[in-house]
Amino acid sequence: MKAVVLTSGGLDSATVLAMAHAAGRECYALSFDYGQRHRAELMAAARVAASFAGTVHKTVSLDLRGIGGSALTDDTIDVPVEPTEGIPVTYVPARNTVFLSIALGWAEVIDASEIYIGVNAVDYSGYPDCRPQFIEAFGALTAVATKAGVEGHPIKICTPIIDMTKAEIIARGMALGVNYEQTVSCYQASDIGIACGRCDSCRLRSQGFFDAGVPDPTRYV
């Protein structure tokens, strides 16, 4: 069975790719060069995809800097280094909607039955497009917006880590042989993947390794 796996180069998506691979899926890893500040994650995504035998990897270019509105796509907005209330400025407007739409198109082209995405509703930054309600709504869309759906076999949206803590995700990935040293999670990582150690993503990642009782392989400033 073929599956498109959204692969950002971060910890969560690496684990999801490992889970799909372990489940016997023929994996098609999909990454996006969308003008993100942390471009080191694109190299990380390529490394992660290459570590799973038989995985096809594609990077699609988008220009979300054209609309901005996020610290990840607008250099005039600083990445916060302290916890904030509400939806943080690192939220990229409609990003997962856009990503899933393109993944859905590729899934139709290659006749894939599933799309895997590493959204998480437990240890997350408050992003609205990481919630179960969003995934349920997009799943309903696949049934009416695609040839596959109209013909009675809609493409399934799979979210295997949505209810897992970061520590549980790391433990699962370790059991599946994920090399987390290959991954980059930092919102403002250097060009060679050195993490700031201060942003929301770094804090969640560091705490996850601590809670899992696993040495953190991240290269911090």
Class per helix and strand makeup: alpha/beta
Helix run count: 7
Could you report the average pLDDT, rounded to the nearest whole number?
A: 96
**What's the order of the H and E elements?**
EHEHEHEHHEHH
The total count of strands amounts to: 5
CATH architecture: 3-Layer(aba) Sandwich
Which strand order spans the largest sheet, edge to edge or round the barrel?
Answer: 3-2-1-4-5
SS strand fraction: 5-15%
Return the CATH class.
Alpha Beta
Spans of at least 5 consecutive residues whose pLDDT stays below 50 are: none
Q: What count of domains describes the coordinates?
A: 1
Q: How would the global form be characterised?
A: globular
For CATH, the homologous superfamily is named as HUPs
Distance between the termini: 42 Å
CATH topology heading: Rossmann fold
The largest sheet, given as strand count, sense and whether it forms a barrel, is: 5 strands, parallel
Helix content: 25-40%
Rg, please? 16 Å
Task: Describe, in plain words, how this protein is organized in 3D.
The chain has a single domain, classed as 3-Layer(aba) Sandwich (Rossmann fold), CATH 3.40.50.620. The protein is built from seven helices and five strands, in the order E-H-E-H-E-H-E-H-H-E-H-H. The protein has helices at about 10-20, 40-50, 95-110, 130-145, 145-150, 165-175, 200-210, and strands spanning about 1-5, 25-35, 55-60, 115, 155-160. Strands 3-2-1-4-5 form a five-stranded parallel sheet, sandwiched between helices. Helix 1 crosses helix 6 (about 165-175) and helix 6 (about 165-175) packs across helix 7 (about 200-210). The model has no long low-confidence stretch (mean pLDDT about 95).
